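Tokens as discussed.
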């Protein structure tokens, strides 16, 4: 394992000691977001007992409370980014399809992976994101990560040659479904247990062709104050194939004078997507930090594997404030 910084790297010091668009519902892309359950604190108590900080709220940021989100510069950022993001996505999708006929079947996976990574890097810059990656895997591997926002997908795609695991309904979503299919997303029918062996086969195929595979086993996104429980059922494909599983922890920061990242970048609870993204795009910039663990884990029992991975991610986890 070695550190790899993306093209949109930010100058940051090394991480401290451990512990310090699409939504992933039930660990897969797309769907309803549950209000996360606190492990140590009690929702509604006004304070998160694990951090001693005020309990985060899933209400949208009020632009009027934050001068950094107001004025002509903030509006210019919003307008430019709102136009540039779909324009770049559409252009890169057209470029991807144009390049397929001139490539052999064996070369198409590599072409797709390069395009997805270029899309991730372009989109992250366009959104105002800067990312620092610590210890990215050297080889394509199954990866689990905590989940905070639709921004996770862009940040991880910019850092790894990877595909994502998604619930099957996303394939039918206008626009997003086409992007998901083109990027090689592995769709899973969550209510159909017989679909799990098929998903495991798809994951093994992608790994064999040189792609990483990313899964969010918390089953929902959260505000980033603490790691949510992992759902063992989502790790069934990894346990069935006794795959090596890498693990990562994602966190975000916003500049001084801006809303906290737990509200401005993290997308969770009852936050409407449109309202959230228009506030995100007003930010001068935001910072993403992705920390990968040193060694992958493997196991044939999904409950045991889930528990070990949760503790491994917890050791890397730093709260998003």
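Sequence:
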């Amino acid at each position: 394992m070695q550190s790899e910084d993306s093209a949109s790297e930010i100058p940051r010091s090394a991480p401290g000691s451990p512990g310090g668009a699409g939504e992933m519902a039930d660990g897969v892309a797309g769907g309803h977001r549950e209000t996360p359950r606190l492990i140590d604190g009690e929702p509604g108590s006004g304070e998160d007992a694990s951090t001693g900080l005020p309990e985060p709220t899933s209400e949208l940021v009020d632009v009027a409370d934050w001068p950094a989100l107001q004025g002509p510069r903030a509006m210019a950022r919003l307008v430019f980014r709102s136009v540039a993001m779909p324009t770049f996505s559409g252009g890169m999708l057209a470029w991807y399809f144009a390049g397929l006929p001139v490539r052999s079947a064996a070369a198409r996976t590599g072409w797709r992976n390069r395009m997805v990574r270029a899309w991730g890097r372009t989109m992250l810059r366009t959104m105002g994101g800067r990312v620092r990656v610590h210890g990215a895997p050297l080889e394509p591997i199954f990866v689990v990560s905590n989940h905070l926002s639709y921004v996770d997908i862009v940040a991880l795609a910019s850092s790894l040659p990877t595909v994502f695991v998604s619930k099957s309904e996303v394939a039918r979503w206008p626009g997003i479904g086409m992007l998901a299919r083109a990027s090689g997303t592995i769709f899973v029918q969550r209510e159909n247990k017989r679909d799990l062996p098929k998903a495991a086969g798809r994951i093994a195929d992608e790994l064999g062709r040189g792609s990483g595979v990313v899964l969010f086993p918390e089953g929902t996104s959260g505000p980033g104050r603490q790691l949510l429980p992992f759902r063992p059922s989502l790790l069934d494909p990894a346990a069935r194939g006794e795959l090596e599983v890498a693990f990562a922890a994602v966190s975000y920061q916003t500049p001084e004078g801006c809303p906290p990242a737990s509200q401005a970048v993290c997308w969770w609870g009852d936050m409407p997507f449109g309202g959230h993204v228009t506030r995100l795009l007003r930010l001068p910039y935001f910072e993403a930090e992705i920390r990968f663990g040193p060694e992958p884990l493997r196991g044939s029992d999904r409950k045991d594997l889930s528990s070990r991975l949760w503790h491994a991610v917890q050791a890397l986890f730093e709260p998003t404030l």
